[in-house]
């Protein structure tokens, strides 16, 4: 099996590094499984106090791996992929130790969910962010489980709807990341030094206070959003949106109720 997530422990820090730059660290089933394993390994290691989630290449994470071969009913496949992402985001939120996101690259689609799931997120000068789902006929459904508790409501409405690109400074201003930093590694090292002072019990209990409402949202909404995400993904409009994106042309949307006239 290809190693798509590198795992290393340095003192009290477990580093999980997304290492699939050839497809922009897309969330393939293999990468997701290896992330789960890395989180389990960190939780089982009594020396580890902090997890740092980083990446290689110019993209932190571009979201789902749409190139994965899949069989079966398209709706069932899409729903299962949504559940897979939901389970990964929940695993990060439920991790008993703080998770720091170290981001210095592009973040798209499911990558936003990873950033939102981290307890602390540091973004560097090469970071760019854009929620482009509405432009291809879908919506940021599953990632809303970790994004909406962090983003200001006005910012969520703006960037969910417009799909416009923004930088690390704006990401910090709207609550998506904790800090925009010129030097991501130095800032992460400083945060790790502060967290190292916490006891395992104290860190876990303190984190649990900040994640209780997020986990309640998973309990309430994750399955519904998985179904809704799949319904959007297999719709005619989404197929047109994704095809237009691949063909680098404007999509020919059809407005419901107007006799199928393109808009």
TrEMBL record:
Transmembrane segments: none annotated. GO terms for molecular function: catalytic activity. It holds the Pfam family ECH_1. Belongs to the enoyl-CoA hydratase/isomerase family. This is Enoyl-CoA hydratase. It comes from Mycobacterium kyorinense.
